[in-house]
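Weekly puzzle thread! Below is a chain. First person to post its structure in token form gets bragging rights.
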Amino acid sequence: MSHLPESAQQGEQSNLMITVKWAIPILLGVLTYVLCAPLGESIRLYLAFTIWGVFAWVFEILPESLVGMMMVVFYILAGVAKPAQVFAPWSTQVPWLVFGGMILSLAMQQSGLAKRIAYKIISLTGTSYVGILLSLAVIGIVLTPLVTTPSTRILLLAPIMIGIFQVLDIKQGSQAGMAFMLAVLFAVWSPSFLFLTSDQGVLAADAVFKTTGQTIDFVTYMIYMSPVAVMWAFLSVLTLIVVRPGKIALNKETLQKNYRELGAMTRTEKWSAALFTIMLALFLTDTYHKVSPAWIIILVGSVMFFPGINVLKKADMSKINFTIIVFITTAIAIGEAANACGATKLFAKAIIPYLQGQSGTFVVMATWFIGVVGQLLLNPLAIMGSFFVPIVEVFHILGINPHLGPYALMLGFNNLIFPFE
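Winning reply:
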């Protein structure tokens, strides 16, 4: 029987857990290198470093952006890819679209416009339980092209939901509380792939362009994805209606009082609304003017800082988490390295015999299933970085619309089955 103090025992267990978390990615990387000897040196090194990186993300042994940077450096040092190849994602629209989106998200939050929009939508759609659920679904769709990062949308919606909890006297951990917080999750999650400004949409379009040279504009992407996104949102609301936690209604007078307390629109809110309207108009007409959403969002975000407008100030730049941009861009570099060493074509060559002769529906469903299984083991960015380019290659070779590959994969890994997801 151990005579160590309880705190010492907990410390030993914690150290053991840390050791195990570090050991698993390293051992899996080494094992991959040993088992993949027949594939050639470059590909086995690529797979070994990628497996290490993916599981380093899974076990969170290092900051995500740091793991991504280490993988890029490993690829270069091992001769898997040249610097120009793995740093190519920085010359694409992706990091700039994410950067611009983060500036606009901050503007929505700082100006108070997001809260005003949310309160207004709730007052219009009704104050019953079903009305509040529909409100959240509409808010999620409206905010998605304006606030591109899901975590920021949660930050905007959470205070509103906490206010609703207080008005309705909903207790923490109650069935009603869990139902509403699930509603917030669905409101943030469901429309995530509806617009090309999302990280999923950008990475999917980037994978198709790199593999086939085909491009997709904002409106076409929205047409492709809107039926699925709307159905996803509807089923999410329906699920919460089925598990209705009893009679719940929000006092309309209290809601109107909260809205009145916001006062008249401030100058910064008006500037924010005007600039967001211009941005959305440019997004919807990109078929005609041919200017990418990435450059539009950067320019609009920059105008937020201009003298006389001052929606944002110079000090606000310090509130932007630049490590997310590094993380996303290095995740794309996984696909670049795969192309450089030939792993993408090897993957396509290995999987195509099982898919040749099958219907397009079967291939799409098989890809969807890969996404469902993959999201149980990997985070979404790891899946997108590792599989988008190979999947596009497979669809292109089979003569199927290559855009369907990443879309099917997206719908697969957007299934939330377990609470830890």
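Puzzle host: Confirmed. Bonus trivia for everyone else. The chain is about 75% helix and 0% strand.
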